[in-house]
Each structure stands twice: as structure tokens, then as C-alpha cells.
Amino acid sequence: MTKGRVAKTVFVNGLRIVSETLLDRDSVAIGVWVEVGSRHEEPDVAGVSHFLEHMVFKGTQTRSAREIALSLERLGGMLNAFTTREHTCYHARILGENLPQAVDVLADLATRARLPAAEVRKERKVIAEEIKDVQDTAHEHIHDLFAEQVWPGHPIGRPVAGTLETVAATTRAALGSHRRAFYRPDRIVVAASGGLAHDHLTRLVRRHFHLPRPTSPARPMASPDGLAPRRGVNARDIKQTHVCIGVPTWAFADRRRYATLVTNSVLGGGMSSRLFQTVRERRGLVYTISAFHDSFQDTGFFAVYFACDPRQVVKAINLVLAEMGRLSRQTVPPVELHDAKSQLRGNLLLGLESTSARMHRLARHELYLGRQIPPRATMKAIEGVRAAELVALAREAFTPDRVALSILGPVDEAVLDQIDWNKLGVRARRRG
């Protein structure tokens, strides 16, 4: 495992730089991470973070849209961006010798975008097509529907891109207001990994990021704690029925995250997982089935996704519930537990082959923990997860009153009455 030298610098205005020097790499992956995403938005401007991410590529004070597109591509590099529920990231991958150009371009995007009115009007149409594309793609749209069921009524459960209505109503003024409120130095992390020197990166960031020190505290976030997950059916005339079923979990900083990783591997981490072997291999009900999870500042989720024939959806859901319930009643055998941990270790080590993955890891640790956890420490924490912890996790999380469910396909709500929640094997706790 390549071991890099990690360093961190915090400017007086609050901007943070975290980097990892890898002497054996010619490339550098660098990202400018802004602590703003869909969960920070008011309902009437839902999707504004994602809209702003699109707009910064339409021109800055020093570059046209075409010049932005050419800036790193002509050097053999790449430039892109994405928006999540909690972050917006502008990122590049370049040869180490081109780091100065990359920092200049990324600073341009994050701090000097012009937001021309004509481009705002045009981009409304582009994002509307993006939203419709997702809505037309059932295996993508089901995840937006599921998030709304996990955190009903909370902004973290809304689609990152917003809705057709909110995007159509987004104005240049709203974009500018959003940028002023959230694109502050104390909400920005510059993360980089690869063939670089931290001191050189710090000098470049200081030269190109001209942001005043904030004069007011950052806006607080509303927590989704206490929300009751829901279940719903979205009828659609398509060939398959798509299902997401899962539960809210815990924050990135919570120690139970490691047990969740192992649980994910046991239940749905690949072709050898319990769900794949039971639902696909033994019963032949699905083509693919997988478990997945994510963690945020103050919450998270664990879920299972599959698609199947509408006539088999109840049977498949009940099989998933049964496997989730089995974890709360029976200890995972030592060999299976070892294999799940070994899979996670392999996934982590393979991911570290990529400077981009390392950059993402640096940023997430800084944003969620304020410190770095070395890969070896992560592997040690995973290795330390005991079988009893998986049982305790399942008993705490996999109860009927905590399960969210989204179904998309040619079925109606009557299907909900056919699901056997007793398969979980744990009674719902009383709400009071």
C-alpha cells in the first residue's frame, strides 16, 4: 500500500487545504469542496446548489465557457463538478506539472463566475432535461423516491437537482444570493492527492483564492432526527418493478459506521452476499440485487435495491426482510464474517490505487471529522468489528417502524398490505 505524506493548512479566513504527497505519481487529483448541497436549500429554490454548479462553467471574469472547457483538456487533464446532498465539488485531474493551471481554473470557477442572465435562461432548459432524464430512468429515479421516504419533508430527502417547477423559477438573483451565503472560505476545503508538494499547493491557493474573512457565522442545518420513515408506491407502466427498502442510520463520525460497512458486505456486497445468493441464485427473482449505504453530517442510510417482475415483488421484498431479520437473530459465522472484512479491505486498497479516490477520502474526512484517518486505522477498525455488533446493529436499525420503502412500477398500493413485516423478527418500538 502506497503511503503518502498528509498535510493540512488553515488560512486566517477559514479556508482549509489538505493534501497527500505521493512521490511515485505523475498525476494530481484536486478538488474544491464547498459545504453546500440540497439539504441547505429552502423549498422554493430547491436545486439551486446544483444549478449554480452548472452555471459557473458558463464564464468567469477571466475566461469564456469555451476557454474553461479548453483550459485543462488541452493539457491532457480533465475538469468536472458534482453536487450532493451536503457538498458541491469542482475537481480536476492533471499532470503534477500543470497544478498551477488547475488551481487557477478551479479558483476561477469557485470565486469569479459571472452568472450571465442569458445563460441562466438557457440552463433552466438543460437542467429540466436532466431531471426528466432521471425521471425516465427507473433505476435512477427510485433512489430519489426512496430518499424522500427516509427523510419525509426534510430538505436532505429532496432530489439534488430540484424539481421542474423550482428550476423554472430559479433566477440569477437567487443564484447570486446562494453563492454569497455559502461560497465562503470557512465552508471551502481544497483537497489534493498525487505528485505535489503541500507548500507549493498552499502558495497557489493563497495566490488565486481571494475571499474575505466571514463577518457572520455560517447558517445552521436543521437535523432530520425524529422523522418517521414512510412507505409508498409510485405506479408506472413499465416492464419491471423497482424497489428500494432500507433504514436511516448514523452520521459519518459514528463508530457504528464500521459495523454498517460489514453488514452491507454480508447482506449485499457482491455476488457472494446473502441477498444475491438467496434472491437471485436460489429463487431467480431478480437480475441484480445489492445493498448500499451512505453517511452524512448527522444521519445516514442503509438500503437494498432490486428490480423484478411485478408479480414477484412481494415475494422478493419478503425475502429481503427475512435476510435482514436473520441478522438480528443469528450470529454471522466466523468464516462469513472474515470474508466480508476481507472484501472491504480489498475494496479499500484497490480504491487507494486512484489519486481521485484518495482526494475524495481526504475531503470527506476533513469535512466530516476535521482530521484524517489513515487507511491502516480504517482497516483495523473494520477488522475489530465483532459478530455481536452486527446483531446489535440489526436489532436497533432493522425494525418495522424504521423501515422506508419505495416501489416504482406497474403495481398499486395494495401491494403494501401483502408485505410480511414479521420477517424482520423484531417488533416495532412504540413511538411516544
SS elements, strand count: 11
Distance between the termini: 50 Å
Low-confidence stretches: 428-432
Mean pLDDT: 95
Radius of gyration over C-alpha positions, nearest whole angstrom: 23 Å
Let me know the largest β-sheet: 6 strands, mixed
Report the order of strands and helices. Answer: EEEHHEEHHHHHEHEEHHEEHHHHHE
Class computed from helices, strands and strand pairing: alpha+beta
Query: Can you give the helix content as a percent range?
Result: 40-55%
Share of β-strand residues? 15-25%
Choose one word for the global shape: globular
Count up the helices.
15
Spatial order of the strands in the main sheet?
1-2-6-3-5-4
Q: Would you give an account of this structure?
A:
The structure is a single chain. The relative contact order is 0.15. The strands form two sheets. Strands 1-2-6-3-5-4 form a six-stranded mixed β-sheet, sandwiched between helices. A five-stranded mixed β-sheet has the order 7-11-8-10-9, with helices on both faces. It has 15 helices and eleven strands. The protein has helices at residues 48-55, 65-73, 99-111, 117-136, 138-150, 164-169, 172-182, 198-208, 256-268, 274-282, 313-329, 334-351, 355-369, 375-383, 387-397; strands spanning 5-10, 16-21, 27-34, 78-83, 88-95, 188-194, 231-235, 241-248, 286-295, 300-308, 404-409. It has 432 residues and is α+β, with helices and mostly antiparallel strands. Residues 428-432 have low confidence and may be disordered. The protein starts with a strand and ends in a 23-residue tail after the last strand.
